[in-house]
Amino acid sequence: MSRTKGGYVTRRSHKKVLALTKGQWGSRHLLFRRAQQAMMKSLWYSYVGRKQRARQLRRLWIARINAGARMQDISYSRLIPALKAAHIELDRKSLADLAVHDPATFAAVVDLAKAAG
Fold first, then answer.
1. Domains (range + CATH), the chain
2. Mean pLDDT of 41-47
3. pTM to 2 decimals?
4. Of 15, 48, 57, 79, which is most buried by a Cβ count within 10 Å?
5. CA-to-CA distance for 38 and 26, rounded, in angstroms?
6. Centroid of chain to Cα 98
7. SS (H, E, C) the chain
8. Closest-CA residue to 62 (of 91, 86, 83)
9. Has residue 24 got a pLDDT over 90?
10. What distance in Å separates the CA atoms of residue 2 and residue 20, rounded to the nearest whole number?
11. Closest listed residue to residue 54, CA positions, set 5, 1, 92, 22
12. How far apart are CA 95 and CA 62, in angstroms?
């Protein structure tokens, strides 16, 4: 049996990997095997980073809602159940945006929640 070489298919896949690792340090952007390892690691880091970013944003929103709520003499832990009791279905991202950019509207929402809860 004669040997079959990869030809342009192999070269094309190698070029793809090397293009993805452009800007990496040392041989990680020059040698295919090192580049493949670097690419796999960086793709894993980006996957994990997306999950971490979602967690961090939720923590930021909660901190902002808590700060705005405490200006209205209620804590975050009492505000959220009060909002549910008042059937106000605003997510934390929207509430945080209101607390930062439109405190008057946020105060009205908190008053509605206080009245219901």
1. 8-116 (1.10.1900.20)
2. 95
3. 0.75
4. 79
5. 11
6. 20
7. CCCCCCCHHHHHHHHHHHHHCCCCCHHHHCCHHHHHHHHHHHHHHHHHHHHHHHHHHHHHHHHHHHHHHHHCCCCHHHHHHHHHHCCCCCCHHHHHHHHHHCHHHHHHHHHHHHHHC
8. 91
9. no
10. 33
11. 92
12. 9
Amino acid letter, 57 = L
Structure tokens at 19: 């293009």
Better-scored residue on pLDDT, 103 or 6: 103
Give the Cα separation of 24 and 18 in Å (integer): 10
CA–CA distance, 77 with 66 (Å, rounded to integer): 8
